[in-house]
Amino acid sequence: MYTVYGDLRSGNCYKIKALMDLLEIPHQWQFIDIFKGESRQPEFLAKNPNGRIPVLQTPDGDYLCESNAILFYLAEGSSWIPEGRLERARMLQWMFFEQYSHEPFIATSRYWITLLGQADRFAREIADRRSGGEAALKVMESHLQTHDFFTGDAPGIADIALFAYTHVADEGGFSLSPYPAIRRWIDRMEALPRLRTMKQITAQEPRQ
Ligand SMILES: N[C@@H](CCC(=O)N[C@@H](CS)C(=O)NCC(=O)O)C(=O)O
Fold first, then answer.
1. Residues 97 and 164 placed together within one structural domain of the fold
2. pLDDT value for 206
3. Is the CB of 121 under 6 A from ligand 1?
C-alpha cells in the first residue's frame, strides 16, 4: 500500500491524488499541516529533508518527493506517459515548465490570497508575480490552440501537472477569461472518468 503525506489544498499534492484516482491506485493519505509547521519537524524531515509536501512512501518503504517525480513514478507503464523518446522528453519539458514558469507565480499568489487569506499584506509580492503568471498562461494558450493535450492526442502526466494550479488559477487572482483554449482543455480534463477537481476532493475528503 502506498502512503501519501500531503494536504489536498496544495496543488502539488492534488496532482498525486488526481493521478491515483485516475489509475485507481490504492493508497492511504497522511494529512500534514504545513500551517502548523508539520513538514519541518524532524520526523517529516527524515522522509524529505527539503521539508515539503507531497511525499510518497512506496510499499517497500522508500520515500519519494517532488510532485512531478512522483507522477512519473506512479504512471510508469501506463498510457499517461507517451511511448516515443521525443514525446517523453516533451512531457518532461512541460513538467519543468510547470515548476519553473507557472507554479512560482500562480501557485504562490494563490497561497497568499486564498490559503493564507492575506492579499493586502502580500499585495506587492502578488503584483510582482502577475506578469510571470500571465506569461505562463499565454504559453499554454498558444499550445492548446492547436493541441487537445500537452503531449499528444491523449492526456498525460504533463496535463495533470499543469491542470493542478491552472484549474484554480482564479484563487490566485488569475482570470481564465482571456484564455478560451485553456478553458476548453480544462473542460476536457474535467470530463475524464474519475477526475475530480480540487474543490470536489476537498469537499469530500476534508482532512486530506
Ligand atoms: N517542487 C515541489 C514543491 C513542493 C512545495 O512547495 N510544497 C509546499 C506546499 S505546495 C510545502 O510543502 N510548503 C511547506 C513548507 O515549505 O514548509 C513539488 O513539486 O513537490
1. yes
2. 73
3. no
